[in-house]
Amino acid sequence: MLHQFPLMLGGMFRCRFRTLINTRLMHVSSVGVTPFSDRLTTFVLGVIALGICAPCVYAADDFTRARAAMVEEIADDARFTAPMTGRRGFKSAVMDVMNRVPRHEFVEPKLAKSAYENRPLPIGHGQTISQPYIVALMTDILDVEANDVVLEVGTGSGYQAAVLAELVREVYTIEIIPPLHASATGRLKRLGYDNVFTRVGDGYYGWPDRAPFDAIIVTAAASQVPPPLIDQLKRGGKMVIPVGGLFFTQQLMVVEKKADGAITNRQILPVAFVPLTGEH
Q: What is the mean pLDDT of residues 221-241?
């Protein structure tokens, strides 16, 4: 994880500093007086060690506090948007995952301090990592269960896939931009999300070889609901997808396939997503 290396570095400095202090104390007891130059060296090394370690030692705690604050803000937003979404709060399992997945791992290091702000952030190639509230909302709408298999269209940095991976059995996620696919795949593997399977491709056409899916989530705006995704949705399943053009109002929609195969859809609230790209 992002904070592990500096913490290890900080621990190494503390250990060496402690050893140095113990050595100097032994010198005082045996000789009586430590030379001023030695005391100055000890002091300077201590300041250097503390200066290097101080921001690192608290990095993990800072992220934990920021993540908790983010979850509180998501809860506030859920209450505020309840008249549109019909949800005054999100399921505890979803909120617990939002409070656990390290969003700072899914952004560029220079943006890590902003990772828990409740807003989208750039991830390169004209793409963004979605606002945490939207991630929580879309996840909550899917009503997934522990044994579900979910398709995600638009891997991005892998954050949404990681959130889902903590709630379901398997996540299959498609990314059309090869560099984003490569970085997300490496990141998810490094973080231990072994139940996430990635591929490069045009998400409009889904992943037929792994269909049907209990739920489908699309993280880019389509001009219409892609028919191949409807075909790959299991009966009784849900799809959540933003629909609309880049310069027109987009609506977050829920598509449901009933037990008899009938399709229903409803709008949730207006949103703003990057467009779904591909040959279609």
A: 97
pTM for this model (two decimals): 0.79
Residue with tokens 């299959």: 172
In angstroms, the CA 111 to CA 251 distance is 28
Nearest to 110 by CA among 2, 5, 192, 184: 2
Selecting among 30, 130, 157, 223, the annotated active-site residue is 130
Structure tokens at 170: 């398997």
Average pLDDT value for residue range 248-272: 95
pLDDT at 280: 66
Domain range annotation of the chain: 4-57, 87-271
Chain segment 93-109, per-residue pLDDT in tens: 999 999 999 999 999 99
114 is catalytic: no
Helix (H) or strand (E) holding 160: helix 159-165
**Assigned CATH class of 87-271:** alpha beta
Question: Helix 59-80 crosses helix 36-57 at what angle (to 10 degrees)?
Answer: 20
Say if CB 175 and CB 129 are below 8 A apart. Answer: no
Nearest to 139 by CA among 164, 172, 109: 164
Residue 128: closest CA among 97, 110, 153, 154 = 154
Residue 47 tokens read as 């300041």
Backbone angles phi and psi of 2, in degrees to 5: -60, -35
Is the model's pLDDT at 41 over the cut of 50?
Answer: no
